[in-house]
Design brief:
This protein has about 150 residues and is mostly helical. The longest helix has 29 residues. The protein contains four helices and no strands.
Length: about 150
């Protein structure tokens, strides 16, 4: 599976689920969700930043391009998932909600992936490279296997 597709799908599901959960919570408390919204956005931003930093720290190839494509995919995917989730779990929203979700909502979600991932890539590239795994010495000394043919003299 392509790395941008993996990152895009995971971020789309995270953003779609968060938007749907906030819409459901708004039904019960329409005015008092400021703290929940801030915490949700902080978690989404943190997930993208941490994943971007890990990609840069591990020196993944084309990490910047991967995150740009993943952000675009996550924006569109989260918009579609939000409309589906809202239609099923919240208020039976129809396809008329798809237009705003795929324009403004998708752009906002894409920025909530792209900007923190870019910062994560910047920070992760400044960290030291991970140390290679060291082999543990064997408790028994290695036995030399004789060659099948004797050495020529």
């Amino acid at each position: 599976m392509r790395p941008w597709l993996t990152r895009g799908l995971v971020m789309a599901v995270l953003h779609g689920a968060a938007d749907t959960a906030l819409a459901k919570a708004t039904v019960f408390d329409p005015t008092g969700l400021l703290t929940a919204k801030i915490a949700t956005i902080a978690l989404l931003v943190g997930a993208a930043a941490l994943w971007g930093a890990v990609d840069a720290w591990l020196r993944r190839e084309d990490a910047g391009r991967t995150w740009v494509i993943a952000a675009l995919f996550a924006g569109l995917g989260s918009g579609v998932l939000y409309v589906i989730g809202r239609g099923i779990f919240v208020d039976q929203a129809g396809t008329s909600e798809l237009g705003p979700a795929l324009t403004g909502g998708a752009a906002f979600a894409a920025l909530l992936v792209l900007v923190p991932a870019g910062l994560g890539l910047f920070v992760g590239a400044r960290l030291g490279t991970p140390a290679p795994a060291k082999e543990k010495p064997s408790p028994r000394p290695r036995r030399r296997v004789p060659s099948p043919a004797p050495r020529a003299k």
